[in-house]
Amino acid sequence: MNPELIEKVTKLIVEKLQSQNGLEGNTKVNRASHDSAVTFWDHTTSSKQESTFRPAPNVPGVKTEEGQGLIEFQRYAEPKPLEKIESASKKEEQRMEAIYPSSGVENPFNPEELKELISKTPARIGVGRAGLRPKTDTWLKFRFDHAAAVDAVYGNVNEELLKRLDLFKVSTMVNDKEVYIRRPDLGRKLSDEAKKTIREKCRKAPTVQIIVSDGLSSSAVEENCEDVYLSLLQSLTSLGLDTGTPFYIEKGRVAVMDDVGELLQPKVVVLLIGERPGLVSAESLSAYLCFKPRKGTIEADRMVISNIHKGGIPPVEAGAYLGTVIQKILKYEASGVSLVQKEN
Ligand code: B12
């Protein structure tokens, strides 16, 4: 997605989320937008397909009123001719078919119910079998997904992407992927060289420090990081929150943010990191957040927005949503369980 489009979509989402949460801060919200037809991924319940907002691939009909910086919500996309709508719905059908394939069971006892069950989960259910074995299709798909998972864990993030996002690279105490997998403790600590580089290059004590790490899926970073990152930056800018110097940590684990907290003393750390790949998606990214992470921070004080990928939370929406979560963390000066306790 192009940066201008991300900017428009992000602004729109942040304003809508803020007005829903009553967290308006110093951002202008267009009051007329409350009846907008735009719906969002519902983070409070399990997300339903129909309530998930997915940015359209073509440029949306979002208008910024010159000089006021306000956004019209009424029309999200230009009206399309009928044949375009039909081909779009066919594409959507094909996409859903790829995520929720139809049953492989021959002569099912209750085809409707089976279809309903399959539609509820991307897990491999109702795939049928050939004698005692899985069908060739099922087996090949399994091998393909397994290979994608292995590639995601062992792969390295494309240097071009890091350059494009202007992220310099540092390492943890691990250099080798095999060691990384067997020694999570070493992935939670920055190398001495990394500490030195971070001290030299980064602005100290920002409100928000963004870091990116491959974690357990380099594919997750390659597929989603750019959109999440740009929309997160945009969302923080519209909320008037300053960010430090972002960087990339190779072979990192979630708790590496504690070392970053010690070094740079930000109020909030956001870590965009690849999730352990499953056989449904090898490209799922998570954003872990913590208020003032330090050596000895307990796990309960971290929080996570997980499943950021094309079949889960759309990356641009996740970035915008993260901004509003950070705003809440700053308001209550707490994250994770402590935030929930303070909020209640
Ligand atoms: C592996 C895993 C675990 C492992 C972590 C073991 C380990 N040391 O690696 C175990 C089984 C311990 C675990 C426990 C929990 N998990 Co878990 N976990 C995952 C899983 C499958 C992968 C996470 C991953 O790849 N992380 C990235 C790698 C690089 O991180 P890491 O540094 O190696 O490991 C850290 C993180 O995994 C983190 N972590 C793991 N789960 C959770 C959950 C929360 C809320 C937080 C803040 C952190 C966290 O703790 C590890 C140690 O620092 C995800 C699924 C997913 N789609 O992401 C669910 C997931 C993140 N877990 C989840 C939950 C709910 C939990 C628990 C709260 C369950 C419970 N009721 O006790 C606990 C909380 C643990 C904690 N750290 O606070 C949910 C979070 C939902 C949400 N959006 O809030 C997820 C998304 C699963 C799901 N779909 O429901 N988890």
TrEMBL record:
Subunit record text: The basic unit is a heterodimer which dimerizes to form tetramers. The heterotetramers trimerize; 6 large subunits form a core ring with 6 small subunits projecting outwards.
Cofactors named for this entry: adenosylcob(III)alamin
Function: Catalyzes the deamination of various vicinal amino-alcohols to oxo compounds. Allows this organism to utilize ethanolamine as the sole source of nitrogen and carbon in the presence of external vitamin B12.
UniProt subcellular location: Bacterial microcompartment
Lyase recorded as keyword: yes
Top EC category: lyase
MF (Gene Ontology): ethanolamine ammonia-lyase activity
Segments of this protein annotated with the region Disordered: 44-63
Protein's gene: eutC
Protein name: Ethanolamine ammonia-lyase small subunit
Lineage, broadest ranks: Bacteria, Bacillati, Bacillota, Bacilli, Bacillales
InterPro entries assigned: EutC, EutC_C, EutC_N
Organism from which the protein derives: Bacillus salipaludis
Keyword Transmembrane belongs to the record: no
One Pfam family recorded for the sequence: EutC
Top-level taxon in the UniProt lineage: Bacteria
EC number: 4.3.1.7
Cofactor binding summary note: Binds between the large and small subunits.
Associated pathway: Amine and polyamine degradation; ethanolamine degradation
Catalytic activity: ethanolamine = acetaldehyde + NH4(+)
